Amino acid sequence: MSIVRNQRNRYIYIFIFGEDRKKGLNSIGTFFGVSIRKEYFAYNLKIVTITHGVGIIIFRKILYFVNMMQLFLVALLYYLLSIGLTFFQKQFIKTFHFPLFIVAGHYFTKLVVGYISRIFLEWKRGGKKVRLPIKDQLYYLLPIGVCASFDIGLSNWALEYVTVSLYTMAKSSSILFIFLFSILLNLERWRTSLAVSSGLIAFGLFLFTWRSNQLDILGLVLVELAALCTGIRWTVSQLIMQQEESPTTIKNPIDMIVHVQPWMILAILPLAWIFEGNDIQSYNHPDITLPMVFVNIFFGGLLAFSMEVTEYALLLKTSGITLNILGIIKELITLLLAHYIHHDKLTTINGAGLILCITGMILHALTKQKKNIHLNRIGNASTNGEDEKRLLMSEVCENA
User: Fold this and answer.
1) How many other C-beta atoms can be found within 10 angstroms of the C-beta atom of residue 71?
2) Residue 24: left if φ>0, alpha if ψ -120 to 50, beta else—which one?
3) How far apart are alpha carbons 374 and 108 in whole angstroms?
4) What is the pLDDT of residue 359?
5) Tell me: the pLDDT tens digits for 39-95?
6) Which listed site, 33, 36, 83, 213, has its alpha carbon 20 to 30 Å from 265?
7) Cβ neighbours of residue 282 closer than 8 Å, sequence gap 6 or more
8) Helix intervals (H) in 126-173
9) What is the residue range of the signal peptide feature (predicted)?
10) What is the pLDDT of residues 211-230, one digit of tens each?
11) Phi/psi of residue 172, nearest 5 degrees
């Protein structure tokens, strides 16, 4: 019999193996011969009876199914929030042409909402949320905040020189940067299938958005720098949130937002002042009032906060590469809708690029599935003993 405590969700999992099922509740505070300390009664007890062999396999499959359903729902929410924010931003920017100022407002909104959420969670669950010393923040969180702001700033700057389709085409290289940094930081092991799938997706998206008359060298360089920042941002974020030996203890999306947001604000403010400072001081529009600007920025900030929570939640359960692929799927859907709405014709090159993208995504999914099957086989090799129990315990902690 084994007991696993999950501090985050405040559950006590009690697993009964084999002959332990014959034992019973002897007295108050004792369960199957194991004394339950008083503190355990602050948790919800989840009692799971498992026999050897088949029971372990079935329970593992149930955990896997539940985890996949959670990922699907979070990914669906991410798509809804991301697409909604995109359309909302496009509509607002038509009359208020200051994207960096708007993004800075979103950062402030996310910081305030994040702190309020932390205070509420501390009050509801008790105890203090994680607070990192300034040294760890400078070493690990500063690169994330600076790269996120540079990504946005460089992207907006690049859009002055290139079209949206060329921007999407060039930004597709971000998956290659994420793959490279994942290898360098030991987040991923070198696998030929992973390299091939990443290359297929990047090259496919490049061909899908190809227009031979759109090339601008300066704009292309700016987009590639933005893609580099994207790679650094998400690989370092994955390192912080997933690695057990990480010196940080940030395992919660809201904690991550609260700690990263100040550095993002510090990085975006100089960019907003340089590119939009003079224009915003002389801005005057008869249909736009100051309260309207603040309301739109605040609402957009709420959408951005919710979307970022789903991004970090996906990153916590998957990887930077998978998260980037989910973003590329969203871009493909958006571009296909644009082709349909504006009656743009897809060339043979565009069609070939779409096929390569889909092929790369299928290959990535098959690689992930093969890896999970391999891990399950390792776990199923033993039908008895402590190794089997420890494997199950680790899976429950990951999926709880």
Assistant:
1) 16
2) beta
3) 45
4) 80
5) 444 434 444 444 444 444 555 566 666 677 777 788 888 878 877 887 787 778 777
6) 83
7) none
8) 134-136, 142-158, 164-171
9) none
10) 655 557 787 788 888 888 88
11) -60, -20
